[in-house]
Amino acid sequence: MTTHYSTCPLDCPGACALAVEVENGRLAHIGGWKTHPFTRGVICGKVNRYREVQEGARILRPLLRDGPKGSGRFREADWDEALEVAAGRLRAAMARHGPQTVLPYYYGGTMGVVQQKAVERLAHHAGFSRLGRTICFPIAESGWLAGVGATIGPAPEEAAESDLVVLWGINAVSTHVNFMTLVKAARRRGARLVVVDPYRTRTARLADLHLNPRPGTDAALACAMMQVLLEEGFADRDYLARQTDFDAGVEAHLATRTPEWAAPVTGLDAETIRAFARAYGRAARPFIRIGLGMSRQRNGAVNVHAVSCLPSVTGAWPRRGAGALFATGAAFRVDDGPVRRTDLADPAVRELDMSRLGRWLTDPGLEPPVTALLVFNANPAGSCPELGRVHAGLAREDLFTLVHEQVMSDTARFADVVLPATTFLEHPDLYKSYGQYTLQLAEAVLPPTGAARCNHEVVNALARRLGLDGPDFSGDSEAMIDRVLTASGLPPRAELARRHWIDCAPPEADTHFRAGFPQPGGRFRFRPAWSDPAMPALPDHWPVNRRDLPEAARYPLDFMTPPAHEVLNTTFSATPSAARRLPPRLWIHPEDAVARGIADGDRVAVYNDLGRLHLVARVTTDVRPGLTLCESNFRSGDFPGPGNLNHLAHGDPVAPRGGPAFHDNRVEVARMVS
Ligand SMILES: Nc1nc2c(c(=O)[nH]1)N[C@H]1C(S)=C(S)[C@@H](COP(=O)(O)OP(=O)(O)OC[C@H]3O[C@@H](n4cnc5c(=O)[nH]c(N)nc54)[C@H](O)[C@@H]3O)O[C@H]1N2
Ligand SMILES: Nc1nc2c(c(=O)[nH]1)N[C@H]1C(S)=C(S)[C@@H](COP(=O)(O)OP(=O)(O)OC[C@H]3O[C@@H](n4cnc5c(=O)[nH]c(N)nc54)[C@H](O)[C@@H]3O)O[C@H]1N2
Ligand SMILES: [Mo]
């Protein structure tokens, strides 16, 4: 048996360092790499059981559609034939409508620098439509940049030195398990844990204090905390004056945002808010880990910004073990130009927002129409909002869809051509992280399964069939890693292979903004320069959630689809472990259940303007009255009828840069007579 270093390619903040054991050419076991400073030997159960994917129902050969669209009927082909069919269909589509008729769609299947965005260079060379990558990050990122200015913050490891850890809108037990290792270490030294989440998550169960505001009301909570901090002498006036744009206008505004004001908005008691504010104010080293949860709301960016104001009020930022962390991405000075060739992107070429894929595929007025879709690293037929439209679009007979996949995903079922993809164990890559500061190199540790090829090679082969030659489309993944390392001024691959990771953490003075913030003028901003003038000028509750819209009366219940423990978006959803989650459960409070004659275990219909799903009720006080949820995500077929939870999810672009409000939808629920 041999043990190899690798990195988890999945879309989690941890980018876990892995120890992969191989025996007789097969995967024997995956665990955490013990000496990696962030992973520390701990990984999640999903990747621990990765053999369920590696040796599960993989796609082994190229497949060509052999039945109606979406039927999942295919015949096997060899690479030559499949690539020729694909190139022929693409050429025909472009001849008729021009290159912008082709839309690449790629996201989080792998986060590797070389594999994730490989299709971009083909798209830029050929002039395909560009993809607006909004589905996850831009709402939260906009909120963070509004105040702080760059996606860096205190190293997560410092949380272990904190005396008050706040997990705000992040279900870390399920989505960021290594952070919990640090929380445990802090607690052993006496730290308290506060969790702010609308429902009692696995993480909330572990908290000393769990606050469960109504979804989309975090800014109200944060403003009320600031009011208490300012009024009761917890504010650091000197810090506010030196390092922020705080002034009498901000103070006068916040003075009106009392806990009594926030109570009816958030659904929390004024006394609970006060107690949390005081605990925060008294802590010597309060560390807030901001998750994406509160950003998946129509007022999400405003919420994230308001929470990021708290350490500015108390002057906690400069202290070791204190401050706030949202993401670490800006620390990685990796030049992925050779992979993406963004320099070739023509600004005149349209950009289509991935979160509105269903609209682009079904809008008869779109000119040119999308008649070819190239899907890599993503499963939009499961992960995209407004799924009814996505499915209707993918079912179009005049749409050519190519899907590069490891497994028969919901999207692959709709494909004309399916190409088999390697897993991260079968191709090399470089990995940045958005939750810690190491850059890792993972080499291939297993041969490809069947005829699988990696994204890099598929993009190159397709480009060559389309007549694009030259250095951008030749050479293997290792050669591309070399080009990226050289462009970035990083050590050569052989050195990285020996070291496994390099620490890219900025100096501590920078992650604590001791010399100022990465903003024009160097100050933290209580007054964001939002690009959207409709957004509030100061931290405030912004009442634009679905519950504030006229439809609220027709659909009286809030509905969220937060990450589930056993799957990662739709990845793993076909594994035996995921099947144990079935049937899909709708969490509903006893009051709301009784009012609808629903008992625990009853079959219920959950519906809104977009769609209707059948789930099984889980009647529980883990959600507050008025809130329902289903821990996402499932496959089509896990519910009676097509599609999944995203049938009920709107894709409207959230201010200021777009992105869907996955946890801000409204539904009505009815008991089904069986
Ligand atoms: N209801 C609801 N929907 C959500 C969310 C939610 O909270 N609620 N979360 C959203 C978020 S945060 C995100 S980031 C998106 C993610 O949405 P997607 O990016 O679509 O992620 P997945 O659904 O996990 O699908 C990734 C696919 O990539 C494939 N894959 C893995 N590795 C490779 C590879 O190397 N090459 C190729 N070609 N394919 C590969 C996997 O088999 C998998 O089918 O989902 C969003 N959807
Ligand atoms: N097991 C597992 N791990 C994952 C994923 C997964 O699907 N499953 N997805 C991966 C991906 S792509 C991402 S982006 C990350 C996301 O990881 P997180 O940041 O943890 O996930 P979020 O969807 O942002 O939701 C986090 C929590 O926010 C809560 N929430 C919803 N609305 C609000 C609100 O208005 N205010 C507050 N305070 N909380 C709110 C939800 O109830 C949820 O418990 O996780 C990654 N890791
Ligand atoms: Mo995500």
TrEMBL record:
Keyword Cell wall biogenesis/degradation in annotation: no
Entries under Gene3D superfamilies matching the protein: 2.40.40.20, 3.40.50.740, ADC-like domains, Dimethylsulfoxide Reductase, domain 2, Formate dehydrogenase/DMSO reductase
CC cofactor: Mo-bis(molybdopterin guanine dinucleotide)
Any GO MF annotation of the entry: oxidoreductase activity
Keyword Oxidoreductase: yes
Ranges where the 4Fe-4S Mo/W bis-MGD-type domain occurs: 1-58
Coiled coil, from the record: none
UniProt entry keywords in alphabetical sequence: Iron, Iron-sulfur, Metal-binding, Molybdenum, Oxidoreductase
Assigned protein family: Belongs to the prokaryotic molybdopterin-containing oxidoreductase family.
Name used for this protein in its record: Anaerobic selenocysteine-containing dehydrogenase
